[in-house]
Amino acid sequence: MRKPIIAGNWKMNGTIASGSILIEAFNSVLQDMELSCDVVVCPPFTAIERAVALTRDTAIAVGAQTMDYHDAGAFTGEISPLMLTEVGVNYVIIGHSERREYYGETDETVNAKIKSAFHHNLTPIVCVGESLEQRESGHTLDWITSQLKGALVDVPKEQVSQLIVAYEPIWAIGTGKTATADQAEEVCKEIRDYIRSLYDDETADAVRIQYGGSVKSENALEILGEPNIDGALVGGASLVVDEFIDIIKAANQIGA
Ligand code: PGA
Question: Where along this sequence does the record place binding of substrate (predicted)?
């Protein structure tokens, strides 16, 4: 059985101080829980080092929200995978729709970043998702498979089985509009089937697929209960202690 994974994407919110308070609050609840899911927090870069220190010897792992695919060089403003591993990061979100929309990420850069992440022992959380226009014009599944195809060029199956795909319909991110559990499951199943067609059963059955887009305590259990959904990438609700904890509890229930 695939272990559910809940990741909190803090985006460009908070400070080192507010992030520390959040993590300490998570720690105080999670330390008394037997966890049957993985938990990741992805703070802004400046708060990562503190987050790693505060989560040492806890069940929480730390991820970055993006990275460059080069190891070093003249790339002003970028952060390299070496810098992330140096501070103790284990996961990295790649190709979030906000990165694609505002910072020019493409399927090619996503592909390069996935390879670079694995090279440096970082687990990529690879985001795909359709716009409202694409959904309304019936192009959702074509679009998602084309994003995946581009993302996975020359990525070997041993790596694909380790990565995490986050299906995040753009129209559901930060809007309060969640995909229904059926809509989310339909696409997550398609993602798994497409990986099966590119690789094999073993790889498709191992890859963990998250849903993201306005996940909150009230819809988490229903979404996470779907057979092809193995967790959630959570934005807004990951900044609210009770919300994030309740989502983790829902995953724990499913994973138990
Ligand atoms: P949201 O964001 O939960 O605030 O909709 C999800 C995401 O962008 O990863």
Answer: 9-11, 174, 214, 235-236
Q: Where are the domains of the chain?
A: 42-58+79-255
Does the C-beta of 169 come closer than 6 Å to ligand 1? no
| 214 Cα to the center of ligand 1, angstroms | 6
pLDDT for residue 222 is more than 90: yes
For atom 3 of ligand 1, the residue with the nearest CA is: 235
Residue of 98, 105, 168, 185 marked catalytic:
168
Is 0.85 topped by the overall pTM? Answer: yes
pLDDT tens digits for 82-97?
A: 999 999 999 999 999 9
The architecture that CATH gives domain 42-58+79-255 is Alpha-Beta Barrel (3.20)
Mutate to test the pocket of ligand 1, among 10, 101, 173, 217 (most ligand atoms within 8 A of CB): 173
Is residue 176 scored above 90 in pLDDT? Answer: no
From its phi and psi, is residue 119 left (phi > 0), alpha (psi between -120 and 50) or beta?
Answer: alpha
Across residues 190-207, what is the average pLDDT? 98
